[in-house]
Amino acid sequence: MKKFTFFLNKTIGSRKTYNELVFIAALFFIPFIMIIIRPLNSTDTGGYYSYFTNPASASNVEQSFLLIASLVRVISPELLGFRFLLFIYAFLSSVFLFVVLKKSENPFIAFIVYFSFAYIYQMCIQIRSGVANLIFVWAIYDIANKKPKQYYLKMLLAFFFHNSSVLFFVLYPLARFFNKYRRMLVVLPFLFVFLSICLYFLMDQAIFLLSNSKVTMLKTLYAYTYIKQFSEAPVNPFNRISLFLLFVYYFFLFLVKRKNTLEIVSLVIMAFSIFCYFLGKFTLPIISQRYPEAFNLILVISLPLLYIRCKEKKIYFLLLLIYLLLINIQYKTLSTMLSYVF
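Given the sequence above, the corresponding structure tokens read:
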């Protein structure tokens, strides 16, 4: 019995954490089912349904999709099989989500932050990147704990699910560098904005080399940087989400005097998200649409950390409420969920 209790505590954590996770799982059940039965009218679900039913057209799709699809077609090559494929992706996302929640300082706040934004946009719409982005959030703890091998193994797994994970590979050395030189955090967001301008001019000169490269990672970088440069609508890097992120960054920076490594890593990733907003402005708009949606998931870790650090809980919950309102305005979280039913 003692061995079982030890295993339970090691696997799940405290009894309080266990109860919170069970409660979250109960809340999670109905939305999880809604993922599987939702209309196939998004870019990922609609487009990848055609890849599923016509494998010959899916030559450039990630290996994870090809592998899962080939196994699922044994059950059914039509809609039923694709629904089961959605179930597999949703299940994998859920597993990684609860791994992250288990590590959180406050699983319930972490779940609210994730559900209000990423659950709808990533798990319900971007089925592949939804898995990859959660693997990235899980790997953030490896950066804080100085475990490069574990981090890069997880990034390879994330890349297996979605090629956009290529940009995650630079986060480990960046976060470790700024953890060592913490005084630079005061100007880091502005330093990244300047870097995005410099990188734009550098990449503009190197575009022809990337376009002819036979290295998959460089070809992916080229694809996400220039292929659709002139077909995408321009973006505003000073949007409500990026401004909120910048506010949280400096609120956290000046509120918490002695920050642990995980908190430093969180700040670096917030600043890097701002970098992506501006890089997308100067190069390919999809960069400022897709990558911040991954990097902003750092709020799943940082907002529960801020809850512990902030003595004025009224100020904290006001901040959390502002976040929830902005996210709902930006992504229409509630109306999107209801549209699956009505």
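The chain has 17 helices and no strands. Try to locate this feature in the token string yourself.
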